[in-house]
TrEMBL record:
Compartments reported by the entry: Cell membrane
Organism phylogeny: Eukaryota, Metazoa, Chordata, Craniata, Vertebrata
Name the record gives this protein: Olfactory receptor 52K1-like
Superkingdom in the source lineage: Eukaryota
Keyword Lipoprotein tagged: no
GO cellular component: plasma membrane
Transmembrane segment boundaries: 25-49, 56-76, 96-118, 139-160, 197-220, 241-260, 272-291
Length: 309
């Protein structure tokens, strides 16, 4: 085994398989990131400027878009720079910051989707109590919890990582992931606390997803009884349900792949699984809601019509 040493940089070795197609990948990634920026910023601006959209469902969509911008900005600029660079390295501090941003983005997204599910549950299953429960103050509290909880959890996670000594610098990813950084710790280094904290965090956010399932069981039960509720379900819940299922499949696939898949699987496939969470949700969610929710769709069509005139 290698002796421990002071780590100043990590190497992102997953780039080895992409460099032969760097121009194509760079062009597609730049187009993708530009599209993410345009769609999400447009939706955020539309919701902020239109007072008719200052309702919980639209405000939560706005928060989701802001979170998408936060997560993708922690990956795409560095990724695009690395594609043009001769060596794909990242400093120790930058690597920990990126790992923090990636994890907090994913967990904040999980929390926001959970609050959206709670909002839809109240709107459909408890319509008479909706206004009194989902107040501006309650909504603000839920949004703050959705952001601050992951930030606090992963601040502790990263602090636990900083106490480790490392015997390797090779991260088999396109970006830094805390679990893979911990794996580089020297043999014999105590990573028990890191693993326990990681499993506790995973349990907390698995609980979020179970809560979403619970809310939708009640929503579907209620909608079966009423034609009006079925129409509301199709309009407001279907986009959210597609978002949740897509997000869940992508995140679980990535976790399973990272922890259990053989290293012999093609690097290009590993890279696709890794970046899927930074591609599909940030593009798909705004488009899904933008076209499905009447108020947002009509607002977009009005803006397009005004520009054409």
């Amino acid at each position: 085994s290698q002796p421990p040493y002071t780590v100043t940089v990590f190497t992102l070795s997953a780039f080895n398989d992409t460099m032969s197609h760097r121009v194509t990948i760079f062009s597609l990634s730049l187009l993708c990131y530009s599209l993410i920026l345009f769609i999400n910023i447009s939706l955020v601006v539309i919701i902020i400027l239109d007072e008719n959209l200052h309702e919980p469902m639209y405000i939560l969509l706005c928060v989701s878009c802001v979170n998408g911008l936060y997560g993708t900005s922690s990956f795409y600029p560095k990724f695009l720079f690395d594609l043009l660079s001769s060596s794909q390295v990242v400093s120790y501090g930058e690597c920990l910051c990126q790992a923090f941003a990636m994890y907090s983005f994913v967990c904040s997204d999980t929390s926001i989707l959970t609050v959206m599910a709670y909002d839809r549950y109240l709107a459909i299953c408890r319509p008479l109590q909706y206004r009194s429960v989902m107040t501006k103050k309650r909504l603000s509290q839920l949004v703050c919890i959705s952001w601050l909880t992951p930030f606090c959890i992963f601040s502790i996670n990263i602090l636990l990582t900083t106490r480790l000594t490392f015997c390797g610098t090779d991260i088999q990813r396109l970006f830094c992931v805390n679990w893979l950084i911990v794996k580089l710790a020297c043999p014999g280094t105590d990573t028990f606390v890191n693993n326990v904290f990681a499993m506790t965090t995973l349990s907390i956010y698995t609980g979020h997803l179970l809560f979403v399932v619970w809310t939708y069981i009640y929503v579907v039960k209620t909608c079966v009884k009423s034609k009006k509720d079925r129409a509301k379900f199709m309009q407001t819940c279907v986009p959210h349900l597609i978002s949740v299922l897509t997000f869940f499949v992508i995140v679980v696939s990535d976790l399973m792949h990272m922890r259990f898949t053989s290293k012999d699987s093609p690097q290009s496939f590993q890279n696709f699984v890794a970046v899927a969470v930074l591609f599909f949700p940030p593009i798909m969610n705004p488009l899904l809601y933008g076209f499905k929710l009447n108020k947002i769709r009509s607002r977009i069509l009005t803006l397009v019509h005004v520009r054409q005139r």
